[in-house]
Amino acid sequence: MSNKNKTLLVTGGAGFIGSHLVRLLVNKYPDYRIVNLDKLTYAGNLANLKDIEHKENYSFIKGDIVDAVFLDELFATHQFDGVIHLAAESHVDRSITDPMSFINTNIIGTVNLLNAARKVWGDFTDKLFYHVSTDEVYGSLGETGFFTEETAYDPRSPYSASKASSDHLVRAYHHTYGMPIVISNCSNNYGSFQFPEKLIPLFINNIKHKKALPVYGDGKYTRDWLWVEDHATAIDLIYHQGKVGDTYNIGGNNEWKNIDLIHVLCDLMDELLDRPKGDSRNLITYVKDRAGHDRRYAIDASKLMNELGWEPTIQSTEGLKTTAQWYLANMDWMENITSGDYQKYYQEQYAER
Ligand code: NAD
Ligand code: TYD
């Protein structure tokens, strides 16, 4: 596809991954118009985009993808060449306590976007709908093996089931209506601007405030961690060079058992905060397990590496250190989002564990 004068809609651009992607696109493609559509839920934060909000090729629209009428008007007004769809409810624990908001945003919201695009995209020439998804759609692995693009879907949480459902619908619009689509399924991301409900920023914030570190179950659950900026470069690459209709797995080849990662993070934080070695590890508290907790995720990203030449740039301990340093240097960002409703969320989520 040509790289000139495109108008791209990014949904969920005020969230964690979306803000990194918007920053990359706005800086890399001065000839594009990047439109960021976001509802600004608890997870959306325009402070994540302060450094690029003044750029001429960037604009922000506040709106809800569950509102089909609003989306139809939006697509009729802007001539979007492409959609990169990240807006979602994204936290597994919240999907256990409130599944309906996941069904509404992740499933209905995605179908609304597909319908709005289909109405104005005519014969689909030079158009592309990119759905950003998760490796959690593949279910849970045992001690060995990896998820490939051929792995059968087996989602187990309301979150992963809602993402699996939206993946199926995106593929269905490709097969049924010929809509040009591409999907990527990525492993756990970490880095700056992540809401402190996910493991790494939550634990950094708790260590800073000497609060307990709630480790679910036996702590031996495994995740494959990817530096968020490497995810953003993968999305850019797939959007521009991926094969229409295809799926790409994205992963860091960087597996950690939770407790091992937590130990490294604790020791790093002791160093950065100039506290005695072992101080942060003393905060580790084993708590009641997450319901239906998936044991292990691990991604085989060789298709993306071999076909498009992508590879992750940052090794895990280096990335963890940079991440911890970023949160410590940006505690005002953290304080802003952990005041108010966050305290209530935290009490409810962790009180009974
Ligand atoms: P996030 O929760 O940080 O951000 C989600 C964004 O979507 C927020 O800005 C929020 O305001 C917006 N949003 C939510 N509901 C909306 C609605 N109804 N209308 C418009 N905007 C709405 O999520 P994230 O971690 O940045 O994840 C982004 C995408 O990547 C999601 O689709 C997620 O499933 C996927 N993903 C995330 C990870 C990860 O590790 N975080 C890994 C793989 C895939
Ligand atoms: P999380 O960051 O919520 O991502 P996901 O559930 O999408 O993988 O959790 C990462 C791992 O850390 C997961 O195995 C659950 C575990 N975890 C804890 O042990 N304690 C916590 O407080 C949180 C939020 C997660």
> CATH topology of the domain at 7-194 and 224-255 and 295-315, which one?
Rossmann fold
- Roughly how many Å is the radius of gyration? 20 Å
Which word captures the global form? Answer: globular
Indicate the CATH class of the domain at 7-194 and 224-255 and 295-315: Alpha Beta
Q: What is the chain-wise order of helices and strands?
A: EHEEHEHHEHEEHEEEHEEHEHHHH
Name every ligand kind in the structure.
Answer: nicotinamide-adenine-dinucleotide, thymidine-5'-diphosphate
Mean pLDDT: 96
Major β-sheet annotation: 7 strands, parallel
Structural class by SSE content: alpha/beta
Q: Can I get a quick summary?
A:
The chain has 353 residues and is of the alpha/beta class. It has twelve helices and 13 strands.
Describe the structure.
- The chain is an alpha/beta fold.
- It has a domain of 241 residues: Rossmann fold, CATH 3.40.50.720.
- Helices cover 42% and strands 16% of the residues.
- The protein contains twelve helices and 13 strands.
- Strands 3-2-1-4-5-6-11 form a seven-stranded parallel sheet, sandwiched between helices.
- The longest helix has 22 residues.
- It is globular.
- It starts with 6 loop residues before the first strand and ends with a helix.
- The protein binds nicotinamide-adenine-dinucleotide (NAD) and thymidine-5'-diphosphate.
